[in-house]
């Protein structure tokens, strides 16, 4: 299976995506976009999360267009913990779908049997039958979808919202597959600086403009430069980002607009690449955030903590 991220794709582009072997997509934000994906044979995932609370719109695919739900799934797509606390996880998706007019059985199938079928595991999971492995949830009603009893592998593990089974011991070290960062001084010199891409300082520079928390667009801007590098000293709302490969094979730089206001420095490997992403306006703050120490006269005597 290949899960596609085809946000904003036209119907014609989706044709090519489907023909290339992509089998599913969860990026639609309107019922029409979801319907297009179904028409092209893609498994289509209805999303509702802290970043994209879209279910109220895309559920119209079922409630108004009467689409068959056999190839429809549901996902929360990495929600913030506070969203799960307030809205629930898969139980919250099922509950909201029912509130918006989907039948309880269809909603439950989109969270159980349909995903198992998509993963080609419906002979093993997704239903309750001989030879299947299933977690069984005993629901008080088909409104709240918060189970009274949870059974896993034949044993009651939760009752009345309380965990009654011990948590398993997990050796987390077995999942460590990436080597630690080990930066070299020569690689890190002026790392945050974005070289002006044109000889003409009046030429516009491509900037990543945040239209919302999750939607970006290219925006060409004329920016000041010093010694051939972009200078954001007096520019408000603009930041330097640098994505650094842990073995110093490459670094990708750019300019961000409306990501944050007056952010001195931020560094994290919590991104889709798991490489080091450093963002900010202040060199010392960016170095401190990324664990790079020993700044002297604007240059770096560097090591990684």
From TrEMBL:
Record keyword Endoplasmic reticulum present: no
Swiss-Prot/TrEMBL keywords? Hydrolase
InterPro entries in alphabetical order: Adenine_deam_C, Amidohydro-rel, Metal-dep_hydrolase_composite, Metal_Hydrolase
Record-stated family: Belongs to the metallo-dependent hydrolases superfamily. Adenine deaminase family.
Q: What name goes with this protein?
A: adenine deaminase
Tell me the ranges covered by the Amidohydrolase-related domain, including all copies.
44-157
EC number(s) reported in the record: 3.5.4.2
Catalytic activity entry: adenine + H2O + H(+) = hypoxanthine + NH4(+)
Q: Where does the record locate the signal sequence feature?
A: none
Q: Pfam families from the xrefs?
A: Adenine_deam_C (PF13382), Amidohydro_1 (PF01979)
PANTHER family, sorted = ADENINE DEAMINASE, N-ACETYLGLUCOSAMINE-6-PHOSPHATE DEACETYLASE
Q: Which domain of life is it from?
A: Bacteria
> Domain Adenine deaminase C-terminal, which positions?
214-289
């Amino acid at each position: 299976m290949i899960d596609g991220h085809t946000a904003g794709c036209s119907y014609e582009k989706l044709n090519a995506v489907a023909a290339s072997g992509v089998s599913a997509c969860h990026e639609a934000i309107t019922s029409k976009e979801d319907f297009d994906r179904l028409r092209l044979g893609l498994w289509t995932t209805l999303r509702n999360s802290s970043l994209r609370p879209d279910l109220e719109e895309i559920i119209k695919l079922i409630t108004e267009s009467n689409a068959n739900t056999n190839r429809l799934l549901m996902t929360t797509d990495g929600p913030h913990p506070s969203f799960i606390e307030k809205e629930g996880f898969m139980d919250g998706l099922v509950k909201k779908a029912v509130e918006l007019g989907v039948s309880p059985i269809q909603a439950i199938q989109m969270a159980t049997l349909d995903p198992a079928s998509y993963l080609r595991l419906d002979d093993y999971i997704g239903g309750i039958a001989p030879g299947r492995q299933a977690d069984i949830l005993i629901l008080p009603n088909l409104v709240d979808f918060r189970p009274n009893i949870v059974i896993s592998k034949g044993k009651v593990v939760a009752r009345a919202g309380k965990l009654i089974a011990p948590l398993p011991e997990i050796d987390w070290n077995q999942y460590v597959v990436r080597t630690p960062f080990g930066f070299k001084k020569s690689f890190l010199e002026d790392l945050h600086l974005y070289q002006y891409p044109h000889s003409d300082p009046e030429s516009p520079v491509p900037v990543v403009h945040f239209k919302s928390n999750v939607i970006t667009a290219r925006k060409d801007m004329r920016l000041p430069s010093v010694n051939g590098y972009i200078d954001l000293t007096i520019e408000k709302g603009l930041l330097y980002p640098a994505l650094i490969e842990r073995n110093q094979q490459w670094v990708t730089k750019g300019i961000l607009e409306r990501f944050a206001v007056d952010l001195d420095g931020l560094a994290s490997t919590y991104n889709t690449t798991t490489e080091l992403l450093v963002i900010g306006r202040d060199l010392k703050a960016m170095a401190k955030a990324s664990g790079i120490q020993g700044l002297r006269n604007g240059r770096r005597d560097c090591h990684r903590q």
